[in-house]
Automatic annotation (TrEMBL):
Family assignment from sequence similarity: Belongs to the methyl-accepting chemotaxis (MCP) protein family.
InterPro entries, alphabetized: CBS_dom_sf (IPR046342), Chemotax_Me-accpt_rcpt (IPR004090), MCPsignal_dom (IPR004089)
MF terms in GO: transmembrane signaling receptor activity
Keywords linked to the UniProt accession: Transducer
Pfam families on file: MCPsignal
Name the record gives this protein: Methyl-accepting transducer domain-containing protein
Lineage per the UniProt record: Bacteria, Bacillati, Bacillota, Bacilli, Bacillales
GO biological process: chemotaxis; signal transduction
Source organism (scientific name): Paenalkalicoccus suaedae
GO cellular component: membrane
Domain Methyl-accepting transducer: 121-360
PROSITE patterns referenced in this protein's UniProt entry, alphabetically: CHEMOTAXIS_TRANSDUC_2
Entry keyword annotation includes Oxidoreductase: no
């Protein structure tokens, strides 16, 4: 029973309580009759000063006094001599059901007598009929309250069923979306992996080109050494041709032909030196180009290394995204299973409420 129902029952019980007359236990029966004629009650309390010692039903008292020779026998006797019943005193806060149980637990002769109610300092009484009426009213209200509660629970159960169905639909759509995201992540990861392999091959090619450039520079240095040797030989040949020309001049007419040869040799030496100088210039240009190429190759290597790191990081990110999507799909599956379980429980509750309503 709800707190509101308890308060209502208590209020109705208090409203049903009737005032009860009190008569001293030593009063004579004729005086008691005079007092009771002025009262509209079903019973009265017998007291000894402020102490309650028992009660009598007025109908029983009149029955004894109205019997043959009753008045003559009892009119001048103490009312307590007619016999007293033990008072059943209950608190006003006692429920109707408990009051009825207490009343029915009394001896058979007293079972349907009144029940005395203490409400603070005042004392009154209620009849069994009053209690049955209160109990019936309370049961009716409880039944109405239960019906309202069942209907409310049924409405909420239907609402839960709707929410569970909607949750399953959302989970289903989320699962489909997660699967699409997973497929796209797989495709993106594959694409990144292909790009990464391509970058690695380019990185290898750049390293090979850098090695070739370095090797070419080394060979150019060898050529430069050969050119230096040619220049030295040309200088020496030039000196020798000058010496030969001097000796030919000393020989006079006999050395004239040798002088011509020496002159040609000197021209050849000068031409060789000029060619060597030209080659040296070309070599210098080639070395400058090689150095520039090497610098650019180094820059390319640095950029490709950075690109490689970025692509590897992107690849790791795709892998993490795949793991997150996998975890998300697991959670969606769990939520779908829970939503299905909630829906089943809601259906069971709904069927149970229908059976309870049919029984009530």
């Amino acid at each position: 029973m709800s707190l509101v129902m308890v308060e209502k029952e208590l209020s109705r019980t208090v409203a049903k309580v009737r005032s009860v007359p009190r008569i001293h236990m030593d009063s004579i029966c004729s005086d008691a009759m005079d007092v009771l004629k002025q009262q509209d009650a079903d019973c009265f309390l017998l007291t000894d000063g402020s102490k309650i010692v028992g009660y009598m039903m007025i109908s029983g008292f009149y029955q004894m006094m109205g019997s043959r020779f009753g008045y003559s026998l009892y009119a001048n006797k103490k009312i307590s001599s007619l016999g007293m019943k033990q008072v059943l005193m209950l608190s006003a806060e006692t429920s109707c059901a408990d009051m009825i149980d207490e009343a029915l637990a009394r001896p058979v002769g007293d079972r349907y007598d009144v029940i005395f109610i203490r409400n603070g300092s005042s004392i009154g009484y209620v009849t069994i009929a009053d209690l049955l009426e209160l109990s019936a009213q309370t049961q009716k209200e409880m039944q109405q309250e239960q019906v309202a509660l069942f209907r409310k629970m049924e409405s909420r159960t239907l609402h839960i069923q709707g929410d569970a169905h909607e949750l399953r639909e959302v989970n289903h759509r989320g699962k489909e979306l997660a699967e699409k995201m997973s497929d796209r992540a797989d495709a993106g990861s594959d694409q990144v992996e292909r790009v990464l392999r391509h970058v690695k091959r380019q990185w290898q090619h750049v390293n090979e080109q850098q090695a070739n450039v370095t090797n070419l520079g080394e060979k150019i240095e060898v050529i430069r050494g050969v050119v230096d040797t040619i220049e030295e030989i040309a200088d020496k040949v030039n000196i020798l041709s000058l010496n030969a020309a001097v000796e030919a001049a000393r020989a006079g007419e006999a050395g004239r032909s040798f002088s011509v040869v020496a002159a040609e040799v000197r021209k050849l030496a000068e031409a060789s030196k000029q060619s060597a100088s030209s080659i040296e210039g070309v070599i210098a240009d080639i070395i400058a180009s090689i150095q520039d190429t090497s610098t650019k190759q180094n820059q390319t290597q640095t950029q490709m290394a950075s690109s490689k790191e970025m692509i590897e990081e992107l690849h790791r990110s795709f892998n993490m995204l795949q793991e997150d999507i996998s975890g998300f799909m697991t959670e969606l599956t769990y939520m779908w299973e829970k939503g299905h379980s909630v829906s089943e429980k809601a259906n069971e509750t709904h069927h149970f409420l229908e059976k309870v309503q049919e029984m009530s």
